[in-house]
Amino acid sequence: MIQDFLFIGHRGTxxxxxxxxxxxxxxxxxxxxxxxxxxxxxxxxxxxxxxxxSTLKRTTNGSGLVNNLTYKEILNFRTKFNLSPIPLLTDIFxxxxxxxxxxxxxxxxxxxxxxxxxxxxxxxxxxxxISGKNLTDLLESKKKFPQSKICYNITNGKGLSLTEFLELxxxxxxxxxxxxxxxxxxxxxxxxxxxCHKNEILSLSWxxxxxxxxxxxxxxxxxxxxxxxxxxNHKNIHGIKKWQSLL
Length: 247
Hints:
8-stranded parallel beta barrel
């Protein structure tokens, strides 16, 4: 078994359960996830809710922009298949604190201060990773809260491209103070993984829905040395853990 490997439930799971719901998170944990990843946005009345898209249309029976609706209005809607409510960030912590760790993806700017305050209030700074595509926001968070862990989603990220990262000198990479970098699986290469490792940065890979056999792709990336996988299918977590135990 590879020690300290990050088995991350991507939005909990994206198979058989509605993503970003308590049910999805619990299912990922049941199948062996040691982190759950989820997305946070702010409602019109400044509530932090867990939802990926800027609108309700794709994942719920509602419609409209999240930031045009109050949380009370959003509570009138349910997710499409399991009919779950859209949870608050505080709901996730209240329900799952002590059962897993958390990767929190910022889907908007100006969320970090409010999120970190809630994390600290729940004594979860050591169990949380702040993730996002805006490098400036993440580095500002690291400056304010040095003990926090940040993950830069470099895929279409703002502030540093994959090409730029690979071409930076080691000294310049060290000054970034990034803990983790995540990259879409189709772009994840041995060069990327090795560059991360040389600079004491953990490497993650995500998006395995499009593969005929995602387990083979995941195994190939683990063989290259990737430090963690964001699993779209909770059932694959068990399969990879069993495979790793035989290595």
